[in-house]
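User: quick one, fold this
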Amino acid sequence: MRAFHGDDLDAFLEVMSQPQVGHWLGTEGGFDREGVERWLEMFDRAWNSHGYCPMAVIERSTGRIIGHCGIRYNDIYGWNEFMYALHPDVWNKGYTTEACLKWRDIAFNELDIHEIYSYTLPENTGSRRVMEKLGMEYVKNFVHADLEHLLYVIRRNKSPLTNYRSF
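Assistant:
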């Protein structure tokens, strides 16, 4: 993984314009160039505000950008969350889990983050598998962008979920 560079727009567009990626991120048909620019601007704002943000995931064997992964502070919900999306041709190869495990370790050991949330649509079994492999636990169903989502959390101290924050 590495920070996005100014000349990464076209490579990132190749990932984010995939209909399968757009489907899970709430944009049927994938993102257009302007939409991908907004994603990169969001990452830049997160970096400037908090000092961390999702980064480009690079395929080792080819050197190409295959997606993004990282942690972002979500100002709307008031939590840190995993954000990830990879090109469909690299799904089910363990890349997302590998990248998220690295970010989990960075968050807990270097950034002093105590909990990380993630959410997905109930039918997104691939994303749910990633969350479970990370050691995340189901918290509850909640509505995001007018759709029901499943909310997961992982805590640095692995405390029971009986005291999860109300939001």
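User: anything notable?
Assistant: Confidence is low (pLDDT under 50) at residues 160-167.
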